[in-house]
Amino acid sequence: MNIKKNDKVKILSGKDKGKTGKVLQVLPATEKTEAKISVEALNLAIKHLRPRRENEKGQRIEFPAFMNASNVSLLCPKCGKATRVGHKVVESTEGKKAKKFRVCKKCQEIIE
Ligand SMILES: [Zn+2]
């Protein structure tokens, strides 16, 4: 999974194509489904809430619906471009475990 919570992403398809936003939630892929994400204020869907009491009004609540993670591209925080994500393993000097980082394919900078 190359996209994490709080990443900035660009939408590649659908009604919000070209828009950017912050990732709110990530659902990892399962055997049957792709990884899904929701993005702040994008891909909005409307949920109708029925009134629970007689003198109450029903409500419409807009919320960001999940979409396939493959529909977005990561926005690199370093160069600001939509990019594919590579990986880089950095060996540690003090005998600690090597760490794997995400790397921007455009500017080659490490993405936290
Ligand atoms: Zn970059």
Outline the structure in words:
The chain is an all-beta fold. Helix content is 0%, strand content 45%. The chain has no helices and eleven strands. The strands form three sheets. It has a six-stranded antiparallel beta sheet with strand order 6-3-2-1-7-8, with no helix packed on it. The chain starts with 7 loop residues before the first strand and ends with a strand. The model has no long low-confidence stretch (mean pLDDT 93). It binds zinc ion (ZN). Zinc ion binds next to loops.
What would the principal axes of the Cα set say about the shape? Answer: elongated
Low-pLDDT windows of residues: none
Average of pLDDT? 93
Structural class of the secondary elements?
mainly beta
List keywords for this structure.
3-stranded antiparallel sheet, binds zinc ion
Summarize the structure.
By secondary structure, the protein is mainly beta. It contains no helices and eleven strands.
Task: List strands and helices in order, with pairings.
Layout: E1 8-11, E2 20-27, E3 36-39, E4 44-49, E5 59-64, E6 67-68, E7 72-75, E8 82-83, E9 85-90, E10 99-104, E11 110-111
Antiparallel strand pairs: 1-2, 1-7, 2-3, 3-6, 4-5, 7-8, 9-10, 10-11
The structure holds zinc ion.
